[in-house]
Structures are given as C-alpha cells and as structure tokens.
Amino acid sequence: MSANARVAEVLYEIGEILTIKEDRFRSRAFNMAAQRITALTDDVRNVHGRGELEEIPGVGKSIAAIIVEVLESGTSVVLEELRESLPQGVRELMALEGVGPKRAMTLNRELGITSIDDLEEAIKGQRIRGLKGFGPKTEENLQKSIEEHRMMQGRFLLGAVLPVMDEIKAYMSESPAVLKIEFAGSARRRKETVGDLDVLVASNEPEEVVERFVSMPPVIRVLAQGSTKSTVVLERNLQVDIRVMEPGDYGAALQYFTGSKEHNVKLRTIAVKAGYKLNEYGLYERDTDRRVAGEDEEGIYRVLGMDLMPPELRENRGEIEAAMGASLPSLVELGDVRGDLHLHTKWSDGNATVEEMAARARGMGLEYITVCDHTKSLGIANGLDEGRLRAQISEIDAINESTEGFRVLRGVECDIKADGSLDLPDSVLRDLDWVVASVHSGFRATEGEMTERIVSAIHNEYVSTIGHLTGRLIQRRMPYAVNTEEVFEAAASQGVMMEINAFPDRLDLDDVNSRAAMEQGVKVSIGTDAHAPGHLDFIALGVSVARRGWLEAGDVANTMSADELLRLRG
Ligand code: DGT
Ligand code: CA
Ligand code: CA
Ligand code: ZN
Q: Model's pTM, two decimal places?
C-alpha cells in the first residue's frame, strides 16, 4: 500500500468512528483531510519532507501530527484509542473483513448484535438484508468473512512451524529409543497453515519416548500423557501430538495420520470395495483378518493398485485416480531449483546489499539470484526511479564482472499502476533480464477493473511474470477480486509467467491457482520476495506450493539456468 493510501485509510477510519460518536465537526474534518490525501498527486512523504503538510487544505496542526505518526509507525494512537472506546462486541465484529466501525455500530444498534456468533444467527434469519445499506449480497459476503475468520483462528503459518519441527526432530532423534521419526498431518502435506503438529515415532520403548517428548525445552504445558501418546503445548499455543508405534506398524500409522481426512476416506472406500479394511495398524483382508501391508506406506498403496504419492498431493484432488492409472506427476523438487526470481536489497526496502544477498544464495548452492527492487510509486518502500535503477544495473554488472560461477540477474518489481500501465518506461525495462510486475494499491477495485489492469501489464512486452497475483496475506488480508482464468489465458498467450511468491504469509499463487495456471499452459516462477538474507530459505515454501499444485520441474522457471533465462529475453 502506498504511503498516501495508508494515511488516508487511517484518517477515514478516525472520521468513521467520530461519526459514530456523533462528533460531526471533527469527523468531517478527518474525512476532508482523507479525501485531500487521496487526491494528492505527490507522495505525502515528500510533502512532509518539505515541511509542507499543513499547506494541504484541510490539514491543520493536529491532523498533520497524526500523518507524521502514521508515516513513522504505520498507525496512530488516536485511532487505537478510538477503537478501544467502542463497545467490545463492536470491536469483535470489526475483526471481520468488510466490517468497519460504521457497519459494526449499525449491526449493534439496530439488531443488538454483540458478537460474531450473533451476526451469524442474524444472517441465517435473513435479518441483515432489511437494514439500510445492507442487502442479500452483503449477507452472503458477511457469511464468507465469518467462515474465513473462523478458519484462520488458531492456525499457524507453515513457514513459522518448520523451524519448530526441525528443533523437535533434532531433540527427539538424540534418544536411542527413537528408531524413526516423522511429522504427519498437514505439516507433512506442507499445507500453507497448520492447526497442530502430529509427530510419529517408531520405537520399542514407547514410554521412554513419551517421557522425552513431554520434557522437550519448548514445551510450556502437557495436556495429556499416556503410555504411547501425548499432547503438549508450545509457545503461542501451538499444540503438538505424538504417537509412538511399533516399528512394524509405522507405515500404516504414517499413512493414516498424514491424511488428509478426505484422502483417507476415499482410500478406505476403495479398500473396502476390494475386500480389505484399512486402519492405523495396517491393511487387512476382511475375510481372514490377515494383515497384507502396514510396515511402510508404499506397501499399502501397492496392494490397493496405486503408486506411492507424495504427501503434498494427498488432498483427494485426483491423486488417487492418477496413482491407479500410473499417471502421477513427477513433482518438482527443491534440488531442481537453481535460482531465486524475486528479492529486494537496500536499494529499496531490503536490509542487505546485493552482494550480501548473493553470498547467502551462493552458500545455499544456488546459481543465481534476481534483484527485483520496488519502483517509485512505492514511495514507502523507497522505490527506484529510472536513474537509480540504472545505477543499480551498473553495480550489478560490476559484481558479475568480478564473480565466477554465480550470477546476479538484473530485475525489478515494477508497480502496476491503476490504469494498467507500468511504473517505469519500456526504455529501461528493456535493459533488464527479468521484470516482475505487481499490484500494490487499489485493492477495492471491481473484479473487472483488476483483471483488466493485470491483463494490460501482461501485454507489456518486457514483463516476465506477475508478482503475488491475488494480493492476499494469509490470516490478514483476503485476496482481491480478480478473474484468474482470464489472467492465465492472457499470460499463456503472451508467454508471461505467474509468480509463486514464497514469503510465508503470501504463498500467492496458492496451490490451487498454481495448478490452474499450469493447466492453462502458464509457466510458474518462484520468488522468495526476500528482504533479508535469511529470507532466501523461503524458497522451500515456494517449492512446497508448487508441489501441492502438481507442478513438475519443466513447469517452474527456476529450474532453468541463468543462461537459459537470459535467452528468454532474446
Ligand atoms: P490440521 O492439524 O488442522 O492442520 O490438519 P491435519 O490434517 O493435520 O489434521 P489432524 O491434526 O486433525 O489429524 C491428523 C491426521 O489424522 C489427518 O490428516 C488424517 C488423520 N485423521 C484425523 N481424523 C481422522 C478421521 O476422522 N478419519 C480419518 N480417516 N483420518 C483422520
Ligand atoms: Ca495436524
Ligand atoms: Ca492433531
Ligand atoms: Zn510486491
């Protein structure tokens, strides 16, 4: 979001709460100021830099102070206090996407709604549509927001739990009682968020294993402890389940507890039809109760006439049929990835130099990185204008001159403006190796407008890929409305790729969209969007999305060498 948009958003919300409080005079002042900021052609930070905030009509001393605060901290104490002053129930409603202070108050005042549960009742009773400014469509949208909100409650980003998983695995593996250890559940399937972690251990001394598990350093509370299973709670309320199995049953347990539930239900139906029964201890002939598989996962699938499928595919999205027809995709692997196709440096809002980012990537075994700093529309991110981009290109050229066996590609993350044009002229885009084009503002546009905006960027001949297509932030911001099918169609015809942005709370494209893009003939590029050297590790998250999206190495641009990528530019 641009600085202007963020400032306007805060001022509007203050105005909205003041309206509720019937402070008409001040609310009008804030609304006016917000409108002025929205209409400003200059970056509000520049205006501030020149000490001219109070020259903006409608901006007096106190509003100017709030603007400065928003520019520095992203929010305002006045706004936070106003929010606090609203009734608790109203604040709960405001946690929903699409419910601001005004709507929340109306719902509260007119229908006595004081919680999300109340709201859901009212939607069911079709009582919302009678309110002024609300309709059947609003009811539908509110219901969607509620579902989204519930789904996100108490879930954890995959990127946040992967390090915890490593820590647990390392600690548990030190015990000689642990013969095999693996994470099952959604974490093994590499779902973008996980509800809890499920650890599976093969051992002949289960009690010793459980004892070690409950005394791991990160454990805050033990919820349950039995002889072969236990549940503990770590920081931020992350729950971890453990089950200890005899080595001979390990495969069956791993299959069962990896899920997904939908995958297992389908698998069990097929087993039953074929005269077997399937549970966490093995696959049995129904008539004789003789166990025919269970030591490893592969055996179970084999008896049922299927190839072993990678955990990432086990969502009942066609993988069972493919496994029966020996037509499973050969999924892209982390080891196939040769470089990163989107990262930032100190030139814009990153915290490291080009050389520092390159050194880290090289240490990870990558062959190239692609520097894609922001462009000037993103004032808040210190975006580059043509002059600074050219200076950066020279710096990169010099680095490449003096480097053997590693390459820094010259790229940019060019902002797509509201009218679909790009933030920098073709004359400079042409001189780059790689252009990511992304939307960073105007998220409230209609689906038609947003689609048209992105499709026009796709028609720019220098655009390589579209960055974070839907703009969603997991657990924080819904995807904006965009017709992905139309976008993919345009991209396929123009030879433009789609990015899987691998930043942990983006993962955008997601698994479903990645697969749709591939099926429509679009190649995918994985970009970490790293803003620091440590972020380069996110490449693994991008690969897991690609795998959940059924992508093979040939579908992913990062499996190409730097030379091959350069040849794409002709
Ligand atoms: P989560 O934790 O919400 O991210 O999702 P999962 O998939 O990790 O689910 P969880 O932790 O409740 O259970 C782990 C696995 O155990 C799940 O993926 C499949 C298996 N499972 C759990 N409940 C059932 C069930 O009722 N039927 C079957 N077939 N499998 C189940
Ligand atoms: Ca789980
Ligand atoms: Ca669980
Ligand atoms: Zn971006």
A: 0.78
